[in-house]
Design a protein that fits this description.
The protein is α+β, with helices and mostly antiparallel strands and 158 residues long. 35% of the residues lie in helices and 23% in strands. It is built from 5 helices and 5 strands, in the order E-H-H-E-E-E-H-E-H-H. A 5-stranded mixed β-sheet has the order 1-2-3-4-5, with helices on both faces. Helix 1 crosses helix 2. The longest helix has 15 residues. The termini are far apart.
Length: 158
Amino acid sequence: MIRAATLADVGVILSFVRDLAAFERAPDAVHATEAMLAQALFGVPPAAEAIIAQDDGAAIGFALFFHNFSTWTGRRGLYLEDLYITPAARGRGVGKALLRHLARIAVDRDCARLEWAVLDWNAEAIGFYRSIGAVGMDEWTVQRLTGDALRRLADPDH
């Protein structure tokens, strides 16, 4: 079963985020707190949304997403920030069910695209994404400003 996340799910979502970070070889990179996620997901306006995959009432995975916008298409899209399935639930179609649910949301909201990033060493995930018709955007590279570099650009006199 796939359902929209509720405020009561924030703890399990944060737990899944930490598990995902460990899988992605960055276990100490998560600085989010339950309060921060609660505000992001359920504040006014919400910054993101999440859906939960359940089996017999227990959460076994989640997807967290938000809208982006394409000037080329003139329409918004959905950006999938995180997709995580517990190890015991992998290989049972849960990831595909979460992506299918997101695709329905994107179509229902007239989004031009559903996009996400995947680590280049995660061959299993990349193979799965190709099997559902996803296309790699290999000519694009992600650029990021954080910390001091972000602050320097924001305030060059500081």
